[in-house]
Amino acid sequence: MNKLRDFFVALCLLALSASALAERVYTFGIVPQQSSATLIKTWEPVLQWLSARAGVKLAFATGADIAAFEQQVAAGAYDFAYMNPYHFTVYNQSPGYHALARAQGETITGILVVPKDSPVKALQDLNNATVVFPAPAAFAASLLVQAELRRSGVQFTPKFVHSHNSVYMNVAKGFFPAGGGVPRTFGLLDPQYRDNLRILWQSQPYTTHAIAYRPGTPPSVIRGHGSDEPRS
């Protein structure tokens, strides 16, 4: 009788454990290139579709700005994270995020924008200027643009703000003579700002952002243990 009781207790514990696993929500961190409201509008439908298809509950997460996002990734705070190539190189080493996927056939390029009516016609015209960027480690919008400015012999002072949108708005309003971004976020910018800007320079294409997972994430979650069809 005792053995039978122990057997049923074990079955109950197993069922509870499986139920808890099924109900667990996995955080999906998105690098905040744009405002949180814009990111939620873009990513929530994607995460809902992925959750239904993979049978894994995914919750949108981001940082107050790119620097905060970087701190969260460095601490291993997100189960999954969408990060730029430079971020992946760093956080693959520590805390050990592993690549899961990236957009097939897509690349990323950096751009430098100036006010539409600016007299700046070449990178050299920005010598000794203050140039605005979204974050020190933003791969295309900061690192690629800064590298090209230095390669061209331009002396500049970098100023970092919270997002790509902040860069564009600061330049469009005339607070800074130029700023770094990427074509995707520039194309999504509100026309009232985008129409007051022009692209001065664009980099060559590079491998785009990766979706990575935190070490220790269960293999069944990484693979997706749902059916091939979205669940009702």
Describe what you observe in this structure.
This protein is an alpha/beta fold and 232 residues long. It folds into 2 domains: 119 residues, Periplasmic binding protein-like II (D-Maltodextrin-Binding Protein, domain 2); 101 residues, D-Maltodextrin-Binding Protein, domain 2 (3-Layer(aba) Sandwich), CATH 3.40.190.10. Helix content is 41%, strand content 23%. The chain contains 9 helices and 12 strands. The strands form 4 sheets. The chain has a 5-stranded mixed sheet. The protein starts with a helix and ends in a 9-residue tail after the last helix. The N terminus and C terminus are likely disordered.
Topology:
Elements: H1 2-23, E1 25-30, H2 36-54, E2 57-62, H3 66-74, E3 80-83, H4 85-93, E4 98-102, E5 107-108, E6 111-115, E7 129-133, H5 139-151, E8 156-160, H6 164-172, E9 179-181, H7 183-187, H8 191-194, E10 197-202, E11 206-207, E12 210-213, H9 219-223
Parallel strand pairs: 1-2, 1-3, 7-8
Antiparallel strand pairs: 3-12, 4-12, 5-11, 6-9, 6-10
In short:
With 232 residues, the chain is an alpha/beta fold. The chain contains nine helices and twelve strands.
Mean pLDDT, as a whole number?
Answer: 86
- Return the string of H and E elements: HEHEHEHEEEEHEHEHHEEEH
Output the radius of gyration: 22 Å
Label the CATH architecture of the largest domain: 3-Layer(aba) Sandwich
Helix content: 40-55%
CATH homologous group name of the largest domain: Periplasmic binding protein-like II
Strand runs, count: 12
Alpha carbon gap, first and last residue:
42 Å
Task: Briefly note the structural class of the backbone.
Answer: alpha/beta
Binned strand content: 15-25%
CATH topology of the largest domain: D-Maltodextrin-Binding Protein, domain 2
- Helix tally equals 9
